[in-house]
Amino acid sequence: MRKRMKRSSKNVFPLKIDELEQLMKSEFDKSPDLSFSKYEHQNKKIAVFFIPYQVQPDRVENLLLTPLLESKEEWSNTAILNKIPLNSGKEYQQMDEILPGLITGKVMIYIEDEAAVVSYDFLNKEKRSLEGAETESVVIGPKIAFTESLVTNLNVIRWNIRTPDLAIEEITIGKRAPREVRLIYLKSLANDTDVDTMRQRLNELDVDNVEDSNVLMQYIEDDSASIFPQFHTTELPDRTSYAILKGKIAVLMENSPSALIAPSTFFSFFESTEDLYMRWNSGSPLRFIRFMSMFISVVLTPMYVAAVTFHYEIIPTQLLISIGQSRAGVPFPPVFEALFLELMIELLREAGARLPTKVGQTIGIVGGVVVGTAAVQAGITSNILIIFITISALASFTAPSYQMGTSIRLLRFPMIVLAGILGLIGIMFGLCMLIIHLLKMTSLGRPYLSPIYPIRFEDLNKALYRLPQNFQYKRFISLSLKDSIRFSKRNANEKKDIDE
Question: What was the pLDDT predicted at 479?
């Protein structure tokens, strides 16, 4: 059995062509991927090697091989780099540079007895066209979403933010399966400490591979044990561009159709790009409805369990009679009844999400109606509780962020258990623990509940509600940006005087 040659990080050149062929085939042992071709030109032996399915064969033939073999000039590495007009031309001397280059779509040229290999990039990138967003559907505003192609995503960001002030840093993560990552921010706006922190976390990430930006977030977030996401993930380029222009940092990753936005606050997960495109007196009530929906989703069902189990006195008499009649044939205590229905809702949601679109919608509607009706008729649950469960489920779906909506839905289960054990005291205990946890959380080192804690009155109109654009002349003070002024307040007042 052929012994595999040890890869060297030193310069192994110059080599004979046959020696190079043996070395490369030993690195790709038992793999037919490598294409190694030998030519003779002007009394010099030339080797061209690459991985066929990683490159564009037509471009390799027309732009590289034809000029190389048909020329009457005596080739050297310097002559190739000067005469073949491709910007990606580089020289590699070490094997730990050549092998990753082959895997990422580079074509290598070696002239016998030269001190290095010449490399050109002909990567064959498979990508899909820009399409509409799936998880962040919007009514008003741009509809396009990111794709798995990093180049395409960067082009969209560049198109949205056409300024040389936009900084895009290249970082590679993953030891066994490297992935390209881009750190994006505005040089004249973003906080240097935030940029350095994000850059350090990415550079210090020591893992074999990272599958997606959502997985990357779990590696670099502040508290990996928390149920709440600390970085915002979005598939909308306009939301990413808007965040960058606000002074935040975005992270794009190859083969991932979503971007990370940091630092993020708890309230930013309830913002939608539609809030920006709608008038302020329409966007503010909708944002308030989302906050109220989050609270309703967390406490509504636990309140029912606590009231029916311990606190009959807080229920109006007529409603209490209806609840008593609906629960007359139910053999289970309210806490088990509520947990059963919540679990059924989650099962229907998961089934609808995993099945094909049309079938999933049918399962969600028909399954909910059929199972709910059958459960009431069988005496397993009461019809009033089904109403509360349905309202709680609908309220959780109002969160624009899918990850935050999932966190809110999961919070209902421990809250229901606490309500079933301790009643209203259990609910208050759960809410207090939740608030304490949120107060302790950070996102890229910045308070998660900003601007509520620490209090920043200037930022309340950007987090909790919206004011007309003429009043939003300051950026988010809590981010400590290099430039906190969006536009001059005096110019806004002068415009108002002219209009009058």
Answer: 86
